[in-house]
Amino acid sequence: MTITVALAGRISPDFAVDIACDLPAQGVTAVLGPSGSGKTSLLRALAGLDHVPGMVRFGDEIWQDATRFVPAHKRRIGYVFQGTGLLPHLSVGGNLAFATRRAASGRSGFDDIVDRIGIAGLLDRMPDRLSGGEAQRAAIARALASRPRLLLMDEPLSALDTDARAALAEELAGILGAIDVPVFYVTHDLGEARRLASRMLRMRGGSVEKVEEVTL
Questions:
Q1: Tens digits of per-residue pLDDT, 30-52?
Q2: 106-117 and 132-145 helices cross at what angle (nearest 10)?
Q3: Distance separating alpha carbons of residues 143 and 113, to the nearest angstrom
Q4: Which residues, 6 or more positions from 107, have their beta carbon under 8 angstroms from its beta carbon?
């Protein structure tokens, strides 16, 4: 199964994209490039948050073409932002329960994610009582609890200090390696990309510059 993107159009008055790629719907694709190269624009188009003219196909499903546009809530996509995006009025457990209810995955889905991410000790905590690393682990757990078919991660470790970032990147490598969900992972850190990804997609000026496999 593949993910195919062919988009060309203006995102804003001073920025346009011309993105074409055909990637396996498996493993982790690290998306790299300088600021303003179109990395987040690619993720937002995949998520259905922005409507850029062109085509997006996930396996046999057309999410967007000249005659249709599948809205974000029908694409079953998990999104982890630079900020956690946790609902501030709910505990960590409440955030996960909200995601599992939306996915109709029930208690088994909840328990599986808690065990996999190792956040049992955080379930009763409110988001403002979490460290940066704890909050990002909770955000990743919430994204997975929604049972996504595609996981989009936009610089999820960028707000952490060096030590916390290195520690969570190590955990994340194990988590992403264990799930059967394709991941697009935006980062500026080449070392992080090599540690986490199966392939690297490099962007510049709103276009895909090249795609290369990561070799160990």
A1: 999 999 999 999 999 999 999 99
A2: 150
A3: 10
A4: 100
Question: Which residues, in sequence order, are CB contacts of 159 under 8 Å at separation 6+?
Answer: 82, 83, 132, 136
Question: Is a pLDDT exceeding 70 seen at residue 26?
Answer: yes
Spell out the domain ranges in the chain.
1-76+150-216, 84-148
DSSP secondary structure string, 145-179? HT--SEEEEESTTTTS-HHHHHHHHHHHHHHHHHS
pLDDT in tens, 42-87: 999 999 999 999 999 999 999 999 999 999 989 999 999 877 789 9
pTM for this structure? 0.90
| Residues ≥6 apart with Cβ < 8 Å to 89 | none
**CATH (one of 2.30.38.10, 3.90.180.10, 3.40.50.300, 3.40.190.10) for 1-76+150-216:** 3.40.50.300
pLDDT value at 104 more than 60? no
CB atoms within 10 A of CB 176: 20
Distances (CA, A) of 85 to 74, 194, 202: 20, 26, 26
